[in-house]
Amino acid sequence: MPKKIPKKTIQRVLIYHRYLTFLLQQGTRDISSKSLADILETTPSQVRKDLSCFGRFGKSGSGYDVLELRDLIGKRLGFEKLRKVCIAGMGNLGVALAGYRGFEDLGLTIQAVFDSDPKKINRKFDGLVCRDIKEIAPVVKKNQIDMAVLTVPAGSAQEVARRLENAGIRAILNFTPVKLTLSSRVKVSNVDLAVELKTLSFFIR
Amino acid sequence: MPKKIPKKTIQRVLIYHRYLTFLLQQGTRDISSKSLADILETTPSQVRKDLSCFGRFGKSGSGYDVLELRDLIGKRLGFEKLRKVCIAGMGNLGVALAGYRGFEDLGLTIQAVFDSDPKKINRKFDGLVCRDIKEIAPVVKKNQIDMAVLTVPAGSAQEVARRLENAGIRAILNFTPVKLTLSSRVKVSNVDLAVELKTLSFFIR
DNA sequence: TAGATTGTTAATCGATTAACAATC
DNA sequence: TAGATTGTTAATCGATTAACAATC
């Protein structure tokens, strides 16, 4: 029974992983929780606690082997199993995400993009032919896509989300300001850019 | 001495504000913490606790006046004072954010955009002439811009952030995967899209 | 051995939820 | 008055930090 790992831990560990990759390129072989914490502005306790969720791979007195730690995190976080993702809504944000380098390193690959605008359908975006939103179900099934990024206009968010659900999508990263109503089998994570920026502004008033 | 308000509270209250605006358009006059909680998938206790940070404006027995509550939140969260924002880095993501409708409602306005690519400098993006990153200091000062969105490539993130700091920017919304090193006077908030997507994937493994 | 650093348990801190007297 | 709902205090839950025995 693997104990439940908090979302915040996952996020931090992904950052550790990224930094370990950098250290590796630099040729650094070993690192302590203290050094890692200093660089990433957290505490050694936090680092050790986070890592302890995934096993014990440190050496008392000398810290962690960079390569070993990085690979083990990768394994635990499922970097080896490639996740196929689609993007629904090829407006500015959809296009930006389709062209975003930085997903591959994490074992994520954009496999299909959708829009409802005839001017966009059949056009190529970063090597991917844009398909009609109406074709979500067959395309998702055929390509075994299991995640989606939702970047359609607010007005069609709920409807498109439902299509994604019906197509068998298991997780949606929702960039619309709409509270999606879906079966609990679909995991939804909201990214609200306007709220992020406004929240930041509050703290400098 | 106004007690410190948690970031999470601010974020939720911004969502309440957005929903109250919607209710207002619908013609709904009153709402209880219970109804608000049901719609936004939280608890009445959470709603009341959050609102209590900003004052007491509910009526026992009948709930809140939608218009009054919305306006008071707006006032407390500083919607009336327009915040000027600039975007550094007009790649896909910068362009997407420059064209993003949804900031204005929150009292945020994109006032300038910057890039270092001669092909982009002097080009217009959503009505704004792109300026050279080297001109950040004068442009920011002249326009009294106090926040920035950082969407440059990782390699120049730290350098551009330092320019923003020197120009007097007080807050940066950082979309790069770089841990910025700046004076503590600059408030930095990180949005890591790759980490968001990967974290989501972890929970459907 | 002495020094450093781990993994884990206990203590602390903060955020969410429940409970309830006050009140419209 | 009876019913509903507030604002706030107390209880609970979860996450972070500190402490330390174990160990390389």
Describe the structure.
The structure is a homodimer of 205-residue chains. Chain A has 2 domains: 7-76, Arc Repressor Mutant, subunit A (Orthogonal Bundle), CATH 1.10.10.10; 83-196, 3-Layer(aba) Sandwich (Rossmann fold), CATH 3.40.50.720. Helix content of chain A is 42%, strand content 20%. Chain A has 205 residues and is of the alpha/beta class. Chain A has helices at 7-26, 33-40, 44-52, 66-76, 92-98, 136-143, 154-166, 193-202; strands at residues 30-31, 58-59, 63-65, 83-88, 108-115, 124-125, 128-132, 147-150, 171-174, 187-190. In chain A, helix 2 (33-40) packs across helix 3. The radius of gyration of chain A is 20 Å and the shape is elongated. In chain A, the strands form 2 sheets. Chain A has a 7-stranded mixed beta sheet with strand order 6-7-5-4-8-9-10, with helices on both faces. Chain A has a 3-stranded antiparallel beta sheet with strand order 1-3-2. Chain A is built from 8 helices and 10 strands. At the A-B interface, helix 1, helix 5 and helix 8 of A face helix 1, helix 5 and helix 8 of B. The structure holds a DNA duplex (24 and 24 nucleotides).
Number of domains of chain A: 2
Tell me the CATH architecture of the largest domain in chain A.
Answer: 3-Layer(aba) Sandwich
Shape of chain A: elongated
Biggest interface and residues each: A-B, 54 and 54 residues
Oligomer: homodimer
SSE-based structural type of chain A? alpha/beta
What percent of the residues of chain A sit in helical stretches (DSSP H or I)?
40-55%
Strand content of chain A: 15-25%
In the predicted model, the low-confidence regions of chain A spanning at least 5 consecutive residues are none
DSSP, total strands of chain A: 10
The CATH superfamily label of the largest domain in chain A reads: NAD(P)-binding Rossmann-like Domain
In CATH's first tier, which class of the largest domain in chain A applies?
Alpha Beta
Rg of chain A, Cα atoms, Å:
20 Å
Order of helices and strands of chain A: HEHHEEHEHEEEHEHEEH
Query: Helix segment count of chain A?
Result: 8
Distance between the termini of chain A: 47 Å
Enter the CATH topology name of the largest domain in chain A. Rossmann fold
- Please describe the biggest sheet of chain A, giving its number of strands, its sense, and whether it closes into a barrel: 7 strands, mixed
Organism (chains A, B): candidate division WOR-1 bacterium RIFOXYC2_FULL_46_14
GO molecular function, one term (chains A, B): DNA-binding transcription factor activity
Main location (chains A, B): cytoplasm
Pfam families (chains A, B): CoA_binding (PF02629), Put_DNA-bind_N (PF06971)
